[in-house]
Specification:
- The chain is globular and about 110 Å long.
- The protein has 860 residues and is α+β, with helices and mostly antiparallel strands.
- It is built from 23 helices and 43 strands.
Length: 860
Amino acid sequence: MRVPLSWLKEYVEITQSPEELAYTLTMAGLEVEALEYIGANWGDRIITAQITHLEKVPGSDHLSYTRINTGSAELGVICGAPNIKEGDKVPLALPGARIGDLTIGVARKMGYVSEGMLCSPRELGLGSDHSGIYILDPATPLGVKLSDLLSDVVLEFAIKAHRGDLSSVIGIAREVAALTHKPLRLPEPRFSEQGIPAPELVKVTVEDTDLCPRYSARVISGVRIGPSPDWMARRLLMAGMRPINLIVDITNYVMLEVGQPLHAFDYDLVRERQIIVRRAHDGEEITTLDGVRRRLRGDMLLITDPQGPTAIAGVMGSAISEVNEGTTRILLESANFKPASIRRTAVALGLRTESSSRFEKGLDPELTIFGANRAAQLMAELAGGQVHPGIVDVYPRPVEPRTILFSPSEVEWLTGMKVTSRQVHDALSALEFKVEEVSAAADAAGGEQLLRVTVPTFRGDIEEGADLVEEVLRMVGYDQLPATVPEGPLPEPQSDHWFEREYEIREILIGLGLHEILTYAMTSRQRMLNLLAEVNARTAQVLLQKPADAGQTGWVIAGEKAQASSAGGTVLDDDGQPFDARSLPAVTITNPLSTELECMRLTLLSGLMETLQENSKRNRAGLRLFEIGRRYLPRAAGELPEERRCVGIALCGPAAISWVPELARPADFYDLKGIVETLLERLHIKRYRFTAAQHPTFHPGRCAVLEIARPEADGDEHFTPIGFLGEVHPLVQQRYDLPQRAYLCELDLEVLYAAVPERLSYAPISRHQELTRDLAVVVDQQVPARAVQEAIERHGGELLRTVALFDVYTGAPIPSGKKSLTYTLLYQAQDRTLTDAEANALQERIVEALRQEFGATLRS
């Protein structure tokens, strides 16, 4: 959840710096995942300006030429956004300004000179909306640095599932006030009521009160549909929501502010002026606001009128009663739904929304009236609405605050930290718990002071004394816990070979400048299919590939019917039908946390790509990442999955950090190949090869499969594939919105370590002189250089110490379809100094072998 600091300050005084505040909250259990500094990189070259002239560019269907007044000058700017008009005040990036990795300059387009760029919310870091230019408030002065007007700090929180009270700005402010001993300033909804009472305008029937404990509704008439004021739109953008129109924005604003999801119906489109809350009929269908026709189950809760469904309760509304430009009367829903029901519905439909995520965490039923009144106040103030008297409130079983008898000694018993009754009283009172002293308990210990603690209804997670201990500890500070030395015998050390092996891999890759990441082993089928440039039944099978067992070569497909596969191919025929992600074999989670975590991963690459996607938005330096983890490949029904230990590597952006951006060379395939070769060298694996391959994740012609020599029982040597590496396909790169080319690799550690020698053998260093010869041969262009090198090594015998390729050449005078490969060969004997005649004889033997195997000729 994203919370702008300026919004938070409306409800509580904050004297700490953003970094200090983030630390204080994190240490109290409210994890601040990130701090985003809006406007920190804008500088003085992004300013406010006004469009004074707008004309279409001849020959273009979307470009416009604008004249922009900065207050001190007038500039011409080409813009392709559809939402601008004369008189709009907009952010202008002047020549020299930096927007992400882009430096704005003067450009000539279609006969016009463009002297800057108008900025969208996404380009400014104010949200993800890139559909149009960010329109400033009409009262904004011209020529002012944008950072002076809009700079802010956004705190990004990881809200845990049991703390629904923290899913709002006021919920966070309540914690800040308690931790910093400042008063909490809550908004007080005030408005005048007039007209026909709401209970006479709408009838509400809740048929399934077990799934809907409370349903409240208000009626507001005479509203004006239009854009939201700048301050509201800006807060929504920084909180991660796109402004739509004033009424919808008010419901979203109140949801973010107080934590109560709301839904606005067009009152005149609610048939028979009646709302019925009931379970869906099996097979009943509804078209939601996203335009998707959805089939419902009997355990899903609906908001309906007498003629049919109008919304999926707590998840999303439908177009039947949607607020539109002609809406003048609003029926405002503010309800409370059972968390488990909303979660099941959202997961089953694959429809996770801001509303559903809040209901899933459990909300206070007492919040519905406050949320409805707050929204009614804003609709009256901003949309000119008239609030009708009264509120329709179906609340058959009101929630009673829970009371707990609590002894301060429980804190010491559970944590080892002594606290006084006063500290307990102050800590819980700061969190709005009501604390009363009761008479001393007459027990064997001689009696002790007990406290009667009344838990506020918004803290549904507090059920017993241990929960109160945690609250006291959060307020007093975890850093106050006394340090103690563990007592008792030390456990016997356990040897874990894989722990040592993974540690070894980790140390090697960190030494190569990579950063380790950890991602969830749970993911979704669709997220994994995003790795494929073209998704169909054949390409999807690549996600199930694993190296063949000993005695076999190539790849096999994991599953009940294991099938052989080529190094770069797949096995199923594509029938041309649209591929259903649900048909991808994977280990499915029975009760997933969300649709995004509904199965176990088949590959590490999806997590690496998502990490690249997220970090490329904030990091201009090169991203060099790796992850050591497991793939979970399905087996036959009833069997546990096969867990394959793997390492994944990802590169994106500059290969090295440079003070001069223009000198920072982008990472390429050979950087990734070099990392893999160094890893193999450190593991003392000598016999391997890279073979060109095709893979649906990678760019055609820029992908290789790594094969390692594995000795067999008969004495022969077979090359076994252990993984792919290559440049990410442009379509996949575009899907993940990566600004630069990315490179991926995934290796199977179990096959890799099968090739690591158990014992290392050493040879004495020869005292005799080396002889060096260069060998340049011309071969067909499709002949791999590695195959030629292996042939040289085979026929060079024991006297050939090393072979290194140092030049590949095509072009005149080399014939068409041919290429020149030049190797350096080093000869040396242990017992004598080789003569030129011996070296020449070996050279001739190698040349003859290459002629016979590849039709090679010496380059003249």
